[in-house]
Amino acid sequence: MSGFSIARQKMVDGQVRTTDVTDRRILDGMLTVPREAFVPATRQALAYLDLDLDVSEGAAKRFLIKPALTGKLLQAAEIGEGDNVLVVGCATGYLAALVARLAHQVTATECDSALAAKARDAFASLGLANVACKAAACTEGYPAAGPYDVIVLNGAAEVTPEGLLGQLREGGRLVGVSAESNPPRAMIVTRTHGEFGHRALFDAAAPVLPGLEQAAAFVF
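Below the sequence we write its predicted structure tokens.
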């Protein structure tokens, strides 16, 4: 096995399985998809560590969220093989690549056009034909490919992402980290009869996605 293959196995065994991720499809995907392919060459040695990994090369920081949180969010989303899925704030596309192994069709959005291009290159190199990356703000989603059965946030939101919730089909669900309160928690929001039900899943922290920050309070 290569060094990265060994690191991938250790990541799954030591970080993902130990947090009660039991879905075999998710575990197989995390064992197969090369996380290092979504990381700048200078940081590939960090690809399998238990951290939110900075993959940005400009002033604005963009991250791949921790492997354990990635696995737990995917398990909570219960993505089916016929589902149409939106991944918001995909950065270089690792989470979207995992989702592409679970779903029928995936649309990923990224506000940094250079990172969106890197995601598209990575998808092409891995032969993932059912995922497309669009340069778009995290608040916008991508209505043209919706409505979606599942929306997954690759990060946290300090405000309710109303524009994304409107792109869920009936019975659809959004999963991500809500940082509207302290401590932040992973949440699932389900659309039923046009109404949205919110349920906390577990305590979790992740970098806040651009555009989903809470507005700074005015101070005299």
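The two ends are 60 Å apart (CA to CA).
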